[in-house]
Amino acid sequence: MAVLDVQVVATDHAVWTGEAKSIRGRTKEGDIGILPGHTPVLAVLVEGELVIEPVEGPALTATVSGGFFSVDSDKVTVVADDADLTNGT
Amino acid sequence: MGAQIRVYRQKIASTSSMKKIFKAMELIATSRVGKARVRAQGATPYAEAITRAVSAVASHQEVEHVLTDQVTEPKRAAVLIMTSDRGLAGAYSVNALKHSESLVARLQGQGVEVRPYLYGRKAKAFYDFRSREYDGVWTGSTESPDSDQARDIAQKLVDRFVQPVDEGGVDELYLVYTQFKSMMTQEPTVRRLLPLSVVEDEDSEAGQLPLYEFEPSAEEVLDALLPRYIESRIFTATLEASASELASRQKAMKSAADNADELIREYTLLRNNARQAEITQELTELIAGADALAS
């Protein structure tokens, strides 16, 4: 099965990179979920939670304070102003 | 004669204490330059991601946005000049200022009014000394730049850019900073940040960028992206400039320490000469005295 190649970066460092099954974030108009095979998208994130479901292991939750993310042939780049990664849920 | 030996001794003592200071500063710069480079590298993924995204949006021809529209006849331009806070870095600040001067001269030759923004105490001193005006100044953190300050700079510049020209806004935004090529070479560079000269050169091999869908809309995405893009460009520039500053300082301090070594050697020779001359003179006097008594 196809997986997403995810890269989460903050202003001055890389936060998380890896493969994921799905990723969910909050945009201005509501939550958006990305699965493998999604059409290319560039979206603005607002303050909220970013949930990454990695291929292995439990889901990751990151609190972001704004930013944007781009999806392009299963390559997801999340650019956050400030991201705090918390393991959980 | 004794006076001369004393003078040389003093010179040797002061030169060797200066040498110690130079050596210490060289070591400090060496250790910091490594850290500065690591920081500059840490910011690269963000800068790359944001540049890719901005090129993707900006290459959509149908999007019209203040920040991307090319101005055919610019009237006013903001120039951000990055120098160091402290001296003792060789020609680092001077080179950056020289480049900024030629940029300013070129712009003024085209009839563009230049509004300088200064980063670093040396640039401020340069403008103050010539009693020239400037619109903004940031000092105090050129050696270890923080992202809050970069955000502040970006905010001010973007605000100024968005303002209509009649009300004091600017048409163009230039950045003068020192690019870090290697430990040995740092190059002062002029970049035009705004309006965007669309697409960085890197994707010539990547070919076409994918057609993105925008959420909520291309304009809004651009609105959110561009201030961040400018901020990231400015932040990376400050990080690179700080690495360059420290590398120049290390080089300058190394040659200062070498010069001090040479001076010490020279003074030691002179001191020994003077001492020998004194001994010879004393001997001559003694012998002359003994001769006078004997005859």
TrEMBL record, chain A:
A Pfam family this protein belongs to? Answer: ATP-synt_DE_N
Q: Which InterPro entries match?
A: ATP_synth_F1_dsu/esu (IPR001469), ATP_synth_F1_dsu/esu_N (IPR020546), ATPsynth_dsu/esu_N (IPR036771)
GO molecular function annotations of the record? proton-transporting ATP synthase activity, rotational mechanism
What keywords were assigned to this record?
ATP synthesis, CF(1), Ion transport, Membrane, Transport
Q: Residues in domain ATP synthase F1 complex delta/epsilon subunit N-terminal? A: 4-83
The record describes its membrane topology as: Peripheral membrane protein
The answer to whether UniProt assigns keyword Membrane to this entry is yes
Cellular component terms per the entry's GO annotation? plasma membrane; proton-transporting ATP synthase complex
Q: Where in the cell is it found?
A: Cell membrane
Under Gene3D superfamilies, the record lists: F0F1 ATP synthase delta/epsilon subunit, N-terminal (2.60.15.10)
Cell membrane recorded as keyword: no
- Where mainly located? membrane
Q: Which family does it belong to?
A: Belongs to the ATPase epsilon chain family.
Please describe the quaternary structure of this protein: F-type ATPases have 2 components, CF(1) - the catalytic core - and CF(0) - the membrane proton channel. CF(1) has five subunits: alpha(3), beta(3), gamma(1), delta(1), epsilon(1). CF(0) has three main subunits: a, b and c.
The protein's name: F-type H+-transporting ATPase subunit epsilon
From TrEMBL, chain B:
What Pfam families does the record point to?
Answer: ATP-synt
Q: Which GO terms describe its molecular function?
A: ATP binding; proton-transporting ATP synthase activity, rotational mechanism
**SUPFAM superfamilies given in the database record:** ATP synthase (F1-ATPase), gamma subunit
Indicate the segments annotated as coiled coil, or none if absent. 253-280
> Does the record bear Plastid in its keywords?
no
Q: Where in the cell is it found?
A: Cell membrane; Membrane
Record-linked Gene3D superfamilies = 3.40.1380.10, ATP synthase, gamma subunit, helix hairpin domain
Per the annotation, which location comes first and is thus the protein's main one? Answer: membrane
Arranged from A to Z, the UniProt key words for this protein are:
ATP synthesis, Cell membrane, CF(1), Coiled coil, Hydrogen ion transport, Ion transport, Membrane, Transport
A GO BP entry: proton motive force-driven plasma membrane ATP synthesis
What is the membrane topology here? Peripheral membrane protein
A cellular component term from Gene Ontology for this protein is: proton-transporting ATP synthase complex
Tell me, what does this protein do in biology?
Produces ATP from ADP in the presence of a proton gradient across the membrane. The gamma chain is believed to be important in regulating ATPase activity and the flow of protons through the CF(0) complex.
Please give the subunit comment from the record: F-type ATPases have 2 components, CF(1) - the catalytic core - and CF(0) - the membrane proton channel. CF(1) has five subunits: alpha(3), beta(3), gamma(1), delta(1), epsilon(1). CF(0) has three main subunits: a, b and c.
Q: Which family does it belong to?
A: Belongs to the ATPase gamma chain family.
- What name has this protein been given in UniProt? ATP synthase gamma chain
Tell me the organism. Answer: Garicola koreensis
According to the entry, what is the taxonomic lineage of the organism? Bacteria, Bacillati, Actinomycetota, Actinomycetes, Micrococcales
